Amino acid sequence: MNAAAVDEIRAAVESLGIDVRSISAVAGGDISAAFRVECGDGRELFVKSGEPGVLTAEAKGLKALSDAAHALIVPHPAAYCETEEGASLLVLEWLERVGPTEDYWVSLGRGLAALHGTSAEQYGFHKDNYIGRRPQPNEWCSSWVEFFAERRLEPQVRWLKDTGFWELSWSTRYANLCRRLPELIADQPLASLVHGDLWAGNAMATTAGPAVVDPAVYYGDREVDLAMTELFGGFSPVFYAAYREAFPLDAGYARRRDLYNLYHLLNHLNHFGSKYAGSVDRALRELGR
To answer: In the beta sheet, which residues pair with residue 91?
Structure first.
């Protein structure tokens, strides 16, 4: 991080009335640059730099998670500001990581189950948001089958066709999958508040308890969160046992898991290119038979 960038971030944060003692770059994921800010009053803050729409949507998602009744720690959005160069900054409270223990996995599983007990009458969210850098449409819908097809799968497929990543051999399998959706998923599952992007990097053990960050929230089938935890791994069997004890899953979850994870595979292909083409191909071969 060069000195000019540090000065730019310092000036923006200090414009909020915060006395900045030091700034250091930290890991912040694949989308945004992130910084640790030590303040003169002893506080520590986490500052993300990124696209305005993405960061404001994240702040709204964090507030929705925080407002729900559950035992998970959610970082409080302290402020939003812009640098003189036009970069957007989201200022959050700092959460201190610790190593995950068995108690952490139990608490995370139970906390997620409690979060999923927060529900709505329909599927969607009051605002569109983002999954990574891609817009995630959330217009309310009374049918989960329709919502998942039209608000999740179809936009990703359109972008893949526009960018040339879509393979012609996938079209028939995808059409078959769309016809089969009413057989694969229920039309009226509980519309739970979901994190929406729950891979291992977005859940962490902290000194305050199990925390979740970087959401892409909406109201949908709670199994989308469980499915995402399995896509890239990193979650203990203790987590799944604690979740299932608190909120048992219906029969047939494994089949629905693979369908729900197709959304994330399509999104990763859109974000990161052809290295995810093989995973999409395998999923469509299985689901689009």
So the answer is: 47, 79
Which residues, 6 or more positions from 154, have their beta carbon under 8 angstroms from its beta carbon? none
Residue 224: what are its φ and ψ, rounded to 5°?
A: -65, -35
CA–CA separation, 109 vs 71, rounded Å?
10
156, 268: one domain: yes
- Within this chain, do residues 193 and 254 fall inside the same structural domain, yes or no? yes
What is the reported pTM?
0.94
Cα(274)–Cα(278) distance, rounded to whole angstroms?
8
Specify the number of domains making up the chain: 2
- Which residues participate in catalysis according to the annotation? 197
The residues, any chain, with a CB within 8 Å of residue 97's CB and separated by 6 or more, are 204, 205, 206
Same domain, yes or no: 112 and 235: yes
Range of the domain at 209: 102-287
Identity (one letter) of the amino acid at 15? S
- pLDDT tens-digit readout, 86-140: 778 899 999 999 999 999 999 999 999 999 999 999 999 999 999 999 999 999 9
